[in-house]
Recover the amino acids of this structure.
């Protein structure tokens, strides 16, 4: 593998991209970049400031005028996300934050706003970057591209268990409904829709535990050595 390597991992909500990508990066000694956290943070930040993220024009105007600083920082080796200096890490993993991210990420002005920031990480370090358009838009020349997915029912169960573990009230059927809507919205948006890059390897983790999923991803990566 080259001295500096870029690994792009895309896939639908609940596929385990963040947890799997984080562990893969740790084992490889790479920097992990969770781009979804950037959209979630910007969505929550705008919502907290009274901006309807479903209104593309209002959101674009706000970003142009306010230019909020959204950034990723590594605190004691753990990635945390900030907006205007405030740590948003612990409040972006909710169903509401997920839907805000889905709506705001469909806005081309928002995607352009965050594009340079996302790309800047790969210019300095070997990275594992996950999201929904990493292999198709953000890092189209990534050394390894993976499309990570799993059955919708299983993805919903994983997300439900994650929420319950964090003490967040959740209903499985509602989580599944939200996930199906997010899948549809993400794959049908006009700008940078969720889709498998033509040169990405499909990795289906349905029925696989965490370790098995990590090993599948590492196996694909090791094939390019």
């Amino acid at each position: 593998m080259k001295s500096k390597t870029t690994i792009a991992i895309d896939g639908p909500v609940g596929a385990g991209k963040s947890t799997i990508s984080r562990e893969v990066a740790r084992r490889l000694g790479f920097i992990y970049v969770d781009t979804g956290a950037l959209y979630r943070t910007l969505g929550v930040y705008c919502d907290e400031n009274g901006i309807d993220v479903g209104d593309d024009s209002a959101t674009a105007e706000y970003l142009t005028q306010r230019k909020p600083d959204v950034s990723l920082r590594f605190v004691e080796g753990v990635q945390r996300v900030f907006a205007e200096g405030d740590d948003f890490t612990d409040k972006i993993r909710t169903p509401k934050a997920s839907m805000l991210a889905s709506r705001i990420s469909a806005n081309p002005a928002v995607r352009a706003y965050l594009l340079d920031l996302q790309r800047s990480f790969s210019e300095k370090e070997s990275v594992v970057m996950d999201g929904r358009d990493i292999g198709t838009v953000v890092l189209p020349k990534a050394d390894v591209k993976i499309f990570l997915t799993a059955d919708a029912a299983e993805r919903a169960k994983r997300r439900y268990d994650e929420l319950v573990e964090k003490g967040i009230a959740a209903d499985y059927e509602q989580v599944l409904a939200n996930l199906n809507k997010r899948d549809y919205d993400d794959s049908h948006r006009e700008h940078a829709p969720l889709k498998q890059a033509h040169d990405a390897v499909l990795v289906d983790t349905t029925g696989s535990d965490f370790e098995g999923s990590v090993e599948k991803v590492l196996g694909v990566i090791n094939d390019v050595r």
